[in-house]
Amino acid sequence: MLREVVVTLKEEQAYLELWFEDKSVNEDVRRRGIENSLTKISEALGKLAALEKGDDDSKTEGAANL
Questions:
Q1: How many angstroms separate the CA atoms of 8 and 21, rounded?
Q2: I need a labelling partner for 8 at 20 to 30 A (CA). Which of 34, 42, 47, 63 fits?
Q3: Cβ neighbours around 43 below 10 Å, total
Q4: What percent of the chain is modeled with pLDDT above 70?
Q5: DSSP 23
Q6: Within 13 Å, how many C-alpha atoms sit on residue 42's CB side?
Q7: Buried b (16+ CB within 10 A) or exposed e, 18-38
Q8: How are the residues of the chain apportioned to helix, strand and coil, as percentages rounded to the nearest 5?
Q9: At residue 61, does pLDDT exceed 60?
């Protein structure tokens, strides 16, 4: 899961850089793209925080399936 978080953070950082540089697209489209990237970054950081606490998805998914 750590690899997934790192990849997501790197990808979304690259997308944010593109969104901020590209002035040729509609402002609403840029805003939605930026919001989507920030949402994904936030989710990835939440996963990272859960890993740091030791609450990885495998533990929480297993309990949820009971």
A1: 20
A2: 63
A3: 13
A4: 82
A5: -
A6: 6
A7: ebeeeeeeeeeebeebeeebe
A8: 85, 0, 15
A9: no
